[in-house]
Amino acid sequence: MATAYCLKCKCTRDVSDPRYETLKNGTLTVKGVCPTCGTKLARILGKAAKGAIR
Fold first, then answer.
1. E strands within the chain?
2. What are the C-alpha distances in Å from 6 to residues 17, 19, 23, 38, 48?
3. Could you tell me the residue ranges of all domains in the chain?
């Protein structure tokens, strides 16, 4: 499961409803929702992670 830092809770949380997206420059990101407060979360995983996840 993917994790990201929540700015509202000020701690690292597991991402609810994670979806992986590729940016225009080829960088992989994960986006989702904080399960505690409902804030949108995003984390840049990098180009090296693209081969590891897919």
1. 3-6, 11-14, 16-22, 28-33, 40-46
2. 15, 16, 21, 10, 24
3. 3-53
Backbone angles phi, psi at 52, to 5 degrees: -75, -30
**H helices present in 1-54, as ranges:** 49-53
Name the band, by pLDDT with cuts 50, 70 and 90, for residue 1. Answer: confident
Please report the pLDDT score of residue 54 as a whole number. 56
Q: What does the angle CA 47 – CA 13 – CA 36 come to, to the nearest 5 degrees?
A: 140
Return phi, psi of residue 50, to 5°: -60, -40
What would the pLDDT profile of 11-48 be if each residue is shown by its tens digit? 999 999 999 999 999 899 999 999 999 999 999 998 77
Q: Which amino acid is at 1?
A: M
